[in-house]
Amino acid sequence: MKIQKLLLLFIPLLVGFIVAVSCTPSQNPNSTISRASPQAISPIRLGFCNWPAFLIWQVAKEENLFAENQIDVDLKYYSYSESLKAIAEGKLDANNQNLSDTISLMAKFPNFDPVIILNVDTSYGGDAIIVSKEINKIADLKGKKVATLKGGIEHYLLLLGLKKAGIKPTDIELIDLDESGTVAAFVEKQVDAAGVFIPYTFEALKRPGSKILFSSKDFPNAIPDIIVVNRELIEKRPEDVQLLVKTWFDTLKHIRENPEKSYKIMADYIGVSIGEFQKYISSFQIINIEENLKVFQDSGPKSLPYLARQISQFLLDTGMIKKKPDLSKLFDSRFIKNYAESIK
Q1: Which CATH number describes the domain made up of 3-22+43-123+223-342?
Q2: Which of 47, 295, 297, 334 is the most buried if burial means most Cβ atoms within 10 Å?
């Protein structure tokens, strides 16, 4: 597909919320955020993976937007499952990940103290359960081998689907594998179904006769992706956290103004053509600043705090966690509020 068609698909996701930035929040005289002394400043270790929305950070790096905002960021690329392990073990200062996985990590790693500062996107078909040709409905999964990362977001999606169909988790045989292992096992016909996300979905679908049984499109707003930072970073360097938020929105603006170059950066980074990359675009929906302000309010079913409580209870009920973590300090909306104020 020609690149112009790609732009027509992707730009509408960004147009609704990318606006010119007049100043950084740190320059706001009314801001209560202060910066650490120069001696204390070291690069922020920011983790990301090949989920399409997270690749926006690579544009920020290659187009020098971190430098323009005077923030030193060390981007660290991992497989998604490895990025979760790294943030939980303190090897990262911040990470791009899913809300459900964040709650699972909090329950499993007592010393992991994350703070959610931004809702990046919500999955809209990008997470899926892929099945062999003989499986046509969720009930057909009974007695079948399903590969996915145990306790991960695809496991969560799988359990949502099973519950909707009235099937117990014990009715299937779960095979615990990481992303690459899941795809390999499915393509080699070692398992009957696979829980994967973009871009692994397309690899799994190379198995003859395979198809998507259900996806995150069937569970709207259930799988939001967020940026988490360690609480210590917020306490010691809140201004840099503010600049991280600003850089995110600056990068979205930059993509709108320089689309061809930006999409090429993202596609090249994960080794696919722009034509291949365009297939990923409809799998997620970017969350703009106005929507961020809304979802951070604890005001109903679409809010992140409400969803976090629902996910926590669901994970407990399905045995994915043994105890619900304390979510009372999980969200910090001051950074998006400061950013929104700075662009008025």
Answers
A1: 3.40.190.10
A2: 47
